[in-house]
Each structure stands twice: as C-alpha cells, then as structure tokens.
Write a structure and sequence with these properties.
363 residues, alpha/beta, Rossmann fold, 2 domains, 6-stranded parallel β-sheet, 13 helices, 35% helix, globular
C-alpha cells in the first residue's frame, strides 16, 4: 500500500511525527537526508535512531547548536515507539540506494506498529513482498519517494519558455553534498520572510520528503530528465514569481554528470547560484579527480546553460561547516576575490548578499 507524500505534512494538511532511522550512520555526511529533514521539514521529528550515538540530543550528536535541539537520539525502534511517531523515515542515502539488510527487522516492527515508512532509497520498499505484506496487514503505508509520478516519468523536454515576470534560479554545485538543497531552501525561507512569492523545486529524495512533491531526477529515464524537470518548473513559474531549483551532482562528476546537465537544461534557469564546500579539493570519494576552481565552475555552468538559455552565475553559496569562524570568513572573501561575485555561507552568515544579487540581476 502506497501513499502520496504531497497529501501529508509538507502542505500543512496532516502533520507527521517522524522517527528517523540512521543506525550507525548519523553523521553530517552519512545522514544528509536526516539532516535536511531536521533542518527544513514542517513536520515534527520526535527521535533519531542510532544506537552508536544514543543518549543525547541531535544537536550534541552532530555538533550543530541550532539543529535538533531537544530531539533525542535513541538506541532502537522500541525507544522511538514510546515517543508516539506516526512515520519512520529512512535518513540515509547510501551509494547504490539499497536497504541495509539488518534494518529489515526495524522496518517490520515499525510497520506492525502502524507506522508509515518513508524511503528515499533506490530500491522500492513497497515492491518488497515481505514489507508490502506487513504494511497491508497493519494498514500502514510505504512511500517510495524516488518512484516517479506518471506525469513526470516519460515527459519529453520541449524547451518551453517560462511565464513572463517569473524568475528561475538554479543552485549549481561543485560536487555532490556541498549544500545545494540547503542553500536553495535557506534562500527560499529568507525570500518568503521578505514577502517574495517563491517556491522550492525539489529534485532529490530529501527535498521531496520536505516539500511533499518534486521530481526524483536520479530515477527518471535519461531521455525524460529534461522534460520532467521542465514540467515541474513550468508549473511552479505559473504560480510563483521566484522558483529556486535544487541542483544535483555536478557537471564534472564521473558518475552523475548526466543528471546535472539534464537538470540545467530542463530547469531553463534565468540565473544560477554556485554552491561549494569550502576546502574541498577533489570529487567526494573520487580522490584522483580534482575539482575545477570556482572560476572554472562558473564558466562551465554558464556555458552549459547558454546552449539553451543564458543563465549567469550571480553569487557563490559556501558551506563552511567544517571551518572555524576566521577560516570561514576568509573562505568567503577568497571566493569573492576569485570570481568577482558576492559570496556568503547562507546558513552561517545569512543569505542577504545572495538575495541582493538576485534583485540586482532583475532590476
């Protein structure tokens, strides 16, 4: 039994009480799905499950003073159930997207307790006979977030223009896991607070979990990535003046570059924000492949976008989470000196320089 995530939580119709499963992997890199949900989901997280870090709260476990304060890290599903969750969310996005086999009993326990299961894995849990049967028996549901909706799954791109007066911003990345979703969501929140009519276009499993809708671009057949993203963005530009499109991967990634290019061309942005983790010098987990410089990345993304629609990079969003305060400020200054563009860590120092850059571009 499946359910449509857009009907729950993210649209404010039914608030979920989420227990996040991140057993043995609740770290900044290991559980970025969990971290994204903790930071941005409108639903309530009641616990994170990781026996290796149990005993404190999320803020202490991750060393992030403003994320997950008071949300306990518990040792197992039994302790989580005592906190009355309605949903169990798988909080990791492992390479290959398979379910760790030792997590199966946890899912079965959760389903037996009538918890809905939310999964962003590449393996669809509702296609698993044992898990499907457990969901049917208890009346629980399984949401495979990466299962594309029919209206996106096989749509050919048309290169259609967006509504006049709307502005689409693509959050390009130097690599995977550098803060593209975080940057887009942070700017979206700040823009909404200023009274802008904005929307966040989710293109990955975590963003879809947060908003309840979007395109799982890495599960769309390659011929249809452009068309799926195009439809998502076209629909949003009809309703909103600003659309912030979550980027995926990077144009120079040895595994995921095809997804990135499809996103850039499908989104047809008017401008771009380049996102980068300060201090990273090589593609994550590909130590033999050095990253281009920020200036080179600006040129790469502008060139690729311009094949269909010009979209200059107007600012740099740095992730300085692994630097101290002085080093973070130095990295921001260095990014501006290298590229000539406004730069900031939108989480640490605020997104105002980037919002100002967007305003200048359309003035």
């Amino acid at each position: 039994m499946t359910y449509d995530g857009a009907k729950k939580g993210a649209k404010g119709k039914t608030m979920r009480r989420i227990a996040i499963l991140a057993e043995g992997q609740f770290t900044m890199h290991g559980a970025k799905t969990a971290l994204g949900v903790l930071r941005f989901s409108p639903d309530q997280t009641v616990a994170v499950i990781d026996s290796t870090r149990a005993g404190g709260d999320v803020a202490a476990a991750l060393g992030l003073p403003n994320v997950g304060v008071g949300v306990p890290v518990v040792a197992g599903i039994e302790q989580a159930l005592a906190l009355r969750p309605t949903d169990l969310l798988i909080g990791i996005a492992p390479i290959g997207g398979k379910l760790p086999e030792d997590w199966r009993p946890i899912l079965l326990t959760a389903l037996a307790a009538k918890l809905n299961v939310i999964s962003g894995l590449h393996v669809f849990l509702d296609d698993d006979a044992e898990l499907h049967a457990a969901a049917v028996a208890s009346g629980a549901t399984i949401w495979d977030v990466r299962r594309p909706r029919p209206e996106y799954a096989q749509r050919i791109g048309e290169g259609a223009a967006h509504r006049a007066g709307s502005h689409t911003v693509y959050f390009a990345g130097s690599d995977c896991d550098v803060g593209k979703m975080t940057g887009a969501l942070t700017l979206n929140q700040a823009a909404l607070a200023r009274g802008w009519r904005t929307a966040f276009a989710a293109t990955g499993q975590t963003g879809i979990m947060i908003t309840g809708e979007g395109v799982p671009t890495d599960r769309i057949i390659s011929d249809f990535v452009n068309g799926a993203v195009e439809k998502l963005v076209l629909d949003l530009t009809e309703q909103y003046d600003w659309v912030f499109v979550e980027g995926q991967g990077t144009l120079c990634h040895p595994a995921y570059s095809a997804v990135t290019l499809g996103l850039v061309h499908g989104a047809r942005p008017d401008m771009q924000i380049l996102c980068h983790e300060a201090g990273r010098t090589h593609i994550y987990r590909y130590d033999a492949i050095p990253l281009p410089t920020l200036a080179q990345l600006v040129t790469m993304y502008e060139t690729a976008a311009a094949w269909l629609h010009p979209a200059p990079v107007v600012g740099i969003a740095l992730n300085t989470a692994y630097l101290d305060e002085d080093a973070a400020r130095a990295a921001v200054a260095a990014a501006t000196a290298e590229t000539g563009l406004p730069a900031t860590d939108p989480v640490r120092f605020g997104p105002d320089p980037l919002l100002a850059a967007l305003e200048r571009f359309v003035a």
